[in-house]
Each structure stands twice: as C-alpha cells, then as structure tokens.
Design goal:
Blueprint (H helix, E strand, L loop, with lengths): L1 E4 L3 H8 L5 E4 L11 H16 L3 E10 L10 H7 L2 H10 L4 E11 L21 H8 L14 E11 L14 E3 L2 E2 L5 H7 L1 H15 L1
Parallel strand pairs: 1-2, 1-3
Antiparallel strand pairs: 3-4, 4-5, 5-6, 6-7
Length: 213
C-alpha cells in the first residue's frame, strides 16, 4: 500500500484521481528550511518512510510570484500563516506584480534501491547548507532521523497564472487569489482543479513511473 503522508485530506482526494491504491497517513513531520522545494520534499519523504515503514509519498508546494523573484515560494506556508493570503495578494497587485505560478514536488521513498533523483538536490541546497544537520536539529523526541542515503525520487509539476482579487469558496491556501485561464482555483470544482493543478501534474508523472515500478 502506498501512503500519502500529509495532514491535508484535499491532497489525498486529489491523489486518488491518479493512483489506484493510496491511503493517507496523518503525520505532521518537521520541515527543514531551504530555498527550493526539492530538498524539503526529499527530506520529508525520508522522515515519512522512517515513521511509516512502507512506501510513501509526500509533497511540498508553493506560490511563486515572478516579479518578486519567486517569493514566497518554499516559504509559502509560513507567509500564509503570518501575513495571510489576502495580504500577499494586495502586495502583489499593488506592485503590479501579478505574474505567478504554482509549483509542486512529489517525493517518493520506499527504503529500497532505485535510480534516485540526482544528488545533491535532496541533501544540500545550492548554497551548500548542510540539510542533514538541519534535519537532526529539527528532530523531536518523537522523531527518528531518517537515513540520509535512502533513495528518493522527485516529480515536479507547475501551472502558470496571475494574482487577482480573491474569488471563490473552494480549495485552500492561495487558491482564491490565483487565477488560471480566467478562473481562480477556488472557483473550480475539485475535478476541474485536479485536471490543471501543479499537484495533479506532478502526481500524473509519478503515477506513470510508479505503475511501471
């Protein structure tokens, strides 16, 4: 059984559109800090496999505002919690910086050997930060630090759009202010969003690879 390790039920429902046998595992693993999504997702997959003990996927995703050099990007969750979605929208629109895209990285780990995604993307960021040390530093008494050598496979997806006034009641996070092809993610049905979303595109790539595996 493949376990999607997340505390967000919406993500699991989206994954069920692409995978025949996937179930959720509610584990809020501590996240390392990095300036790209790949090392964060890879570290999360290792932590998740260490906790679950069977094949797992995790994801990390973010909203990247192009004129802001990709901000908030990998810090999207923190910015949402501290500034709020509407404040981010007002900031972008006020600076006429509305070009944006959502990006998602799916990370898979099963504790077995396979051709992993190239290192050092999931052990160090481009500045050479020691993410393995960061992982140890963020571990709690309930966490076992996962083996740095566990292979992790990464799958990415992105969708372009722009920042607009909030519209719609669906989705979560930045969905109300992100418009793709004239419709915000929050205005789309679950099926419509799944068909175009960054996570859906990453899941589609993973599902094709996983079926062959």
């Amino acid at each position: 059984m493949l376990r999607y390790v997340t505390t967000n039920d919406w993500k699991v429902r989206e994954a069920e559109e692409y995978l025949d046998a996937v179930s959720s595992f509610d584990y809020d693993y501590p996240e390392i800090q990095a300036d790209s999504l790949e090392p964060i997702a890879a570290d999360g997959a290792r932590r998740a496999f260490d906790r679950v003990g069977e094949p797992v996927i995790v994801d990390d995703a973010g909203l990247f505002i192009e004129p802001f050099d990709g901000f908030p990007g990998p810090y999207s969750a923190y910015v949402e919690e501290t500034l709020g979605v509407e404040a981010v929208g007002r900031l972008a629109r006020g600076e006429d910086a509305t070009r944006a895209y959502f990006r998602c990285v799916i990370a898979y780990c099963d504790g077995k050997g396979f051709e992993a995604s190239p290192e050092p993307v999931d052990l160090e960021d481009r500045r050479g930060q020691d993410l393995a040390a960061d992982r140890r530093a963020t571990a709690t008494t309930d966490d076992t630090v996962a083996d740095d050598d566990l292979p992790v496979k990464l799958f990415t997806g992105a969708v372009p759009g722009r920042i607009v006034e909030p519209r719609g009641d669906g989705g979560f996070g930045y969905d109300p202010i992100f418009e793709h092809d004239g419709t915000t993610f929050a205005e789309m049905s679950a099926a419509e969003k799944n068909a175009v979303s960054h996570r859906g595109r990453a899941l589609a790539k993973f599902a094709e690879w996983y079926a062959e595996r």
